[in-house]
Amino acid sequence: MRVKVNGKKVEIPYRVVNRLDVNRTVDGIIVSTHIGIKVLWDGISFLEVSAPTSYRGHLCGLCGNFNSLPKDDFTNRRGKLLQDPQPFGQSWLVGAKKSCVRPKSVVNMDRSRRCRGRKDHRLCTRLRSQIFDACHKKVNPNMYYKACLQDMCECPTENCYCESFTAYVHECKRLGIQLPHWRKSTRCRTGWDQFSGSGASLGLRFP
Questions:
Q1: DSSP letters of 118-168?
Q2: The whole model's pTM is what?
Q3: Which of 22, 142, 181, 206 is the most buried (most CB within 10 A)?
Q4: 23-32, 61-70, 99-108, 165-174: which has the minimum mean pLDDT?
Q5: pLDDT tens-digit series, residues 121-161
Q6: Partners of 2 in the beta sheet?
Q7: Which of 114, 89, 111, 112 is nearest to 102 (CA)?
Q8: In sequence order, which residues have a C-beta less than 8 Å from that of residue 1 and are 6 or more positions away?
């Protein structure tokens, strides 16, 4: 994976004094800012944003508002609560039109329901298996299982189940539960494994 700061490629670890630090982790790249916000990206599709509790109730955006009330997380840029995730996501687009590709059509929910009967969705049941058993009492896997079914339906590649697995494992880690062998047992690769060359690129910009 490559990292660019203001358009220029940099080597990891990288530091901008009193601004941010960029480091490599087992799972990907972590950007730690001087204001306490951290962003972890696995080089594929998993992105995790963490913030100290002092920001509780003072945030907004795609990751919600950090008030421990999931029901109002779909609040758009204008402060209106939405029910549909697609317009919610689009309301937070930044940059020029070329920066983000807008979806041309909404996924047909009837098709989505039919997809769940496909045999390859059995891969998602691994979340409920002994592979993740050490964490089941702390983190209920059902929400991640449902997300996995949706991912497998909408994603053309077979390993899309790994996205939900990764999210589950990170929540387990946050609670102090380690699952060191889950990748080997599920054949889920890291961004470093998948893009051993130049492949994925993380771009950072600031004044």
A1: SGGGGGGGGGGSGGGGGGTTTS-SHHHHHHHHHHHHH-SSGGGHHHHHHHH
A2: 0.75
A3: 22
A4: 99-108
A5: 788 999 999 999 999 999 999 999 999 988 888 776 667 88
A6: 201
A7: 89
A8: 28, 29, 43, 191, 192, 195, 199, 200, 201, 202
User: CA–CA distance from 65 to each of 44, 48, 53, 74, 151 (Å)?
Assistant: 25, 14, 12, 9, 24
pLDDT of 18-40, one tens digit each? 999 999 887 789 999 999 999 99
d(CA 82, CA 113): 22
**Identity of the amino acid at 19:** R
Residue 49, CB half-sphere, CA atoms under 13 Å: how many?
Answer: 11
**92 close to 125: Cβ distance less than 8 angstroms:** no
For residue 192, the SS3 value is: helix
**Mean pLDDT of the region 58-63:** 92
Question: Which residue has tokens 């539960």?
Answer: 177
Q: Are 72 and 65 in contact (CB under 8 A)?
A: yes
Q: How many residues does the chain have?
A: 207
